[in-house]
Amino acid sequence: MAELWELICHHTYRGTPGVVADLSPSGASHGLAQGLASGDFLTDGAMPGSGAVQFYKASGRIHIPAEADPWRALGGIKGEVTLRRNPSGSGFLIASNSFQFYIRSDMLNGWFSSYPLQYAQVNSAWDPVAAPYLVPASQWVTLGFLHDGFGTMELYADGQVVARRSGSYAPVNPADGYGVSIGNSLSGGDFANGEIDEVKIWRLNPRRLNENFFARPMDDEAAECWKRFLAEIAEAFRRHPDCAERLIAAFGSAMDNIIRLAMSKGPETRSRLEASAREYQRLWRAGEVDSPEMAKLFADMIAWLKLAGVDLTTDPALAALANSECLRLILTEINPPDCDKQAIRLLESIADSLGGSGRARSHPPARA
To answer: Where in the chain is the domain with CATH 2.60.120.200?
Structure first.
C-alpha cells in the first residue's frame, strides 16, 4: 500500500553550526540560518548530542526557500516540532503563507490557507479532544499538526491528539516565494523563545493513487493491458492538449467535490467512508477485485451516500464530465482495458449499483 504522506523536510540541527541539511528523501528543504550566531546552535538538545537551535532573537530563524517541486503541490500537510520553550505566551514554530504552527497564550495553533482566500484554523483550547491543552514550559515536548486536505485538522502533543476540527476544507496552498520560516514568523519579531531540536514536515503523497492501483496482484496479460491503455491515453492527450487539460481539471474537481460533500455530512458518514476505504484497500491488495465482497462494499457505500444526500447518479459535475465532448473525443482514440477481466467485472457491478446496469460495458467505437 502506498504511503499516504511524503516526508519533504527533516532537520535535526546536529553537526556543523549554521549548516542545516535536509535529511528527507527529496533533499528539497535545506535551511539557511538567518540572524543566528554559531553559538545559537547547541550540541545537546532533547538528547545528548542530538543538536538544537535556540531562538531568542527578533531576527533569528531558519529559512527554507521552498522552491523545489515538493513544495509546489501540498494539498494536505502535517508536521512535528520537538522543542523546549521558556515560560512565555507566544512564539512561531513554523511559518509560511500557506500554513503556520504557533503558540498564543500558551495555546497551540494550526493555521492553513487555501485558494481562493479561504482560511482554516484549529486551536488546542477551543477544539480540544478532551480537556483544553496548554503547551508546557521548560521541558522537551514534540508538538504536531495536520490538515488532511479534505475534512480534518488536528494538533498533537507527544503523539497524542489534543485537538481536532472536522468539516469540509479546501486543499492547502503550495508554498509561495516567501518560503518557510522555522523558529520565527516570516517577518521576524515573533520568535519561538526556546530551543528546537528537530523539525519534520510531510505533504500528501501525490503518487499514492497510482501506487495503490498497481499494488494488487496482476498477471502479465493484465499488466500489459494497463500499460497499453495508459500509453494510448497519454498519446491521445498529446494530440489534444486542450482537451487533456480540461478533462484532468474536470475529473479532479468532480472527485474532490464529491469527497468534500460526503465529508461534510457529519462524523458518522466520514467514519463509514474511512472504514470503506480501508476495506477497499484490503480487498484490492489481496486481488479480490471482482469478488462478491468488493461488489457489496461499493453497493453499500453508494446506498449510504444516497441516504446521506450524496447521489452520484445526479451529481452535476459527474454528469458534465460524462457528457463532455472532450471525453467522447478521447474515448474514440483509445481501446478499453477489457483484457483486465477483474477490473471490467468490478466496473459492471458498480454500474449496476448506480442503477445503470450495462453502462460500464458500453464504449465508443475504438480507433482502427
So the answer is: 5-204
Using CA of residue 341, residue 343, residue 349, residue 351, what is the dihedral sign? negative
53, 195 contact by CB (below 8 A): yes
Give the model's pLDDT for residue 213.
Answer: 79
pLDDT reported for residue 361: 39
Q: How buried is residue 323: exposed, middle or buried, by Cβ count under 10 Å (0-12/13-18/19+)?
A: exposed
336 CB contacts (<8 Å, ≥6 apart)? 229, 363, 366
For residue 368, the number of C-alpha atoms closer than 13 Å in the C-beta half-sphere is 0
- Please name the amino acid found at residue 210: N
| Contact of 143 with 93, CB cutoff 8 Å | yes
Mind listing the pLDDT tens digit for each residue in 161-194?
999 998 878 889 999 999 999 999 999 989 999 9
- 5-204 has which fold? Jelly Rolls (2.60.120)
pLDDT of residue 230: 86
Q: What is the pLDDT of residue 115?
A: 78
User: Quick one: pLDDT at residue 312?
Assistant: 86
| Residue ranges for the chain with pLDDT beneath 70 | 1-2, 356-368
Cα–Cα separations (whole angstroms), residue 363 to 231, 247, 251, 334, 338: 18, 17, 18, 10, 10
Q: What is the pTM of this model?
A: 0.75
